[in-house]
Amino acid sequence: MIFRNVPRSLLRVLGALFLCAALIGAVGCGAGAGETAPPSPPSGGVGTPAVPGWAKGMATVRASALPQQARDVLALIDQGGPYPYRQDGTVFGNFEKALPKQGRGYYHEFTVRTPGERDRGARRIVTGAGGEFYYTDDHYNTFKAVLR
Known about the structure:
This is Guanine-specific ribonuclease N1 and T1. By secondary structure, the chain is α+β, with helices and mostly antiparallel strands.
């Protein structure tokens, strides 16, 4: 052994320093001096809902971050109604192909009231038969997966 005359305590300290340097090099290579690494995506920690498989690759929004009117619609959906618009609960055709392709009848839409609008407005919640919830505020052009 080449460290014959080196005290064991010093060897332990040097070993620990070497290990720390190796870990820092492996983990902290991406950020330069004064930079911070980009935030990690939600991982399901406390207060952060995990991103389910059906929402992978999509923009997401927490249900608590939706407008109050959308949260009210989610509560009505959970209760099974009654819904204020006759179109609520009807089949959503996904003609824009903004949501994953599914068979006819898989998706259903619900109106999210827009204050100041005379008609139904552009906001909707769309549900999937597999338990998915999506929100659009631009009349089906874009969707966000709702994390509940």
